[in-house]
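ugh ok fine here u go
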Amino acid sequence: MNKHLDIAPEVAQALRDGRPVVALESTIISHGMPYPKNVETALLVEQTIRENGAVPATIAVIGGRLKAGLSREEIEYLGKTGRGVAKASRRDLPALVARGADGATTVATTMIIASLAGIRIFATGGIGGVHRGAETTMDISADLEELAQTPVMVVCAGAKSILDLGLTLEYLETKGVPVIGYGTEELPAFYTRRSGFGVDYRVDSPAELAAMFRAQRELDYKGGMLVTNPIPEEYAMDKAVIDAAIEQALAAADAAGIHGKETTPFLLAKVVELTGGESLESNIQLVLNNARLAARTAAELSR
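structure:
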């Protein structure tokens, strides 16, 4: 085991026993929602994983230690500290470890730590991707590169609709990452069920997802797999409403000079403000939906 990694006892025992484990990120706790809603949501997602037959492993960096599985107290700490905890992508891990610092893990770093721990399935809200205007800014999330090189299945509600979804799919295709639609042939767009862009394959059961991922591992591919799971119909937002909010948020970010890794948290917070909190409830529900699917798929994979 990596000397910088701590695996929670419950998670370690489940892995030894061959029982299903699902990784969860921590950026959603510290940077994605206000306190105490962030802590309530994190605990509810863990509960949902358990109710669907798997063991949750929320991932973070605390005191320079890579953590696969957090205690309730550690989740509370991340929630209360909020943006005082560094948002940690791949480039940040060496510095955080060396300095004994804290970090909330993005999709990329959650995949890295999950893979080190031997966890193969990870549930999140939405992945990062190619930002609008990337042809001049080169603003492309490290999440995409991680999907190309780390053998973890990521279950999400598609790419966040603040991104350039077409270019995000093109990047994933270039990197050879399979994009799977769960019950859909169209890429979900986080708050909405449809984007107008197609996925590579449609799958209709957790057993089929597990079989596809097992085949990928047996073929010795080095990368991961992206499963896109549409937000439940009753929580999906009107596309015109969310598109208008995103355009306003993008203009506000440009006016404020926001760039780099601060862009996504700023835009999501602005969208919550502009939609009167409706997008926050949608965000919570899509994460729970992804947790259910990830747990059921992990259970099939462990058979």
